[in-house]
Design goal:
By secondary structure, this protein is α+β, with helices and mostly antiparallel strands. It is built from 7 helices and 6 strands. It is elongated and about 70 Å long.
Length: 175
C-alpha cells in the first residue's frame, strides 16, 4: 500500500495517540518494504541503533510492526528485520477511536447519574456514597466537601463526543 497524504495523516494521528510521533520517519522508510534490518534503518535515518529499537519496540507493542529474527553467522548476534503493516495500523486507529467514544459515553452516563462532591482545596472529588462514608469530609485535608455541579463537565464531554462522532462519520463516508 502506498503512503498517500490521507493515509499519512491517519498514521500521524495514530502515532500521536500512542505518543510515538518521532517514529514517523521510520514508518516512511519501512512502509513499502518487507523485513528491513534495524541497522539499515538506523544508518539511513542517521539514528543510533538504540533510538531505532526504542521507537520500533513501541510500535511493536501496538502490533503495528512485525519482525523476523535471524542469527548473524559471523558475530552470533540476532538481527531483527522489521515490516510495517498499514492496514493493521489503520484498524488500530479505528479501534482506539471507538474505545475513546465508548469511554466518553460511559463518563457522560456516570456524570449524569451520580452526584459528586469536591474539596474546596481541590484535593479530591468523590461520588455521593464515598462522601457519605467519609461524613462529607475530605480524606486528604479534612475540610467539608461541597456538592459539585457537573453540568459543565457533561457539556465538555458531550462536545468532545460530538466532534469524535462527526469525524468518524466523515471517515466512513470517504472510505
Amino acid at each position: 500500500m502506498k503512503l498517500n497524504s490521507e493515509t499519512e495523516t491517519k498514521i500521524k494521528e495514530l502515532l500521536v495517540e500512542i505518543e510515538s510521533e518521532e517514529a514517523l520517519p521510520i514508518i516512511k522508510f519501512v512502509i513499502n518494504k518487507r523485513n528491513v534490518s534495524e541497522f539499515k534503518i538506523a544508518d539511513k535515518l542517521q539514528l543510533s541503533i538504540n533510538q531505532v529499537r526504542n521507537l520500533i519496540y513501541k510500535l511493536n507493542n501496538y502490533n503495528l510492526v512485525t519482525y523476523v529474527r535471524k542469527k548473524d553467522k559471523k558475530k552470533g548476534w540476532f538481527i531483527y528485520y522489521w515490516s510495517f503493516h498499514v492496514r493493521e495500523a489503520l484498524s488500530s486507529l479505528e479501534g482506539m477511536k471507538n474505545s475513546k467514544i465508548e469511554g466518553i459515553k460511559r463518563k457522560i452516563e456516570e456524570e449524569s447519574s451520580t452526584s459528586f462532591f469536591s474539596c474546596p482545596d481541590k484535593c479530591s472529588r468523590v461520588d455521593f456514597e464515598t462522601a457519605l462514608e467519609n461524613n462529607f469530609k475530605c480524606v486528604e485535608c479534612g475540610k467539608v466537601l461541597k456538592e459539585e455541579s457537573n453540568t459543565k463537565e457533561i457539556g465538555v464531554l458531550s462536545k468532545e463526543l460530538k466532534i469524535l462522532e462527526k469525524t468518524r462519520k466523515k471517515e466512513e463516508i470517504s472510505n
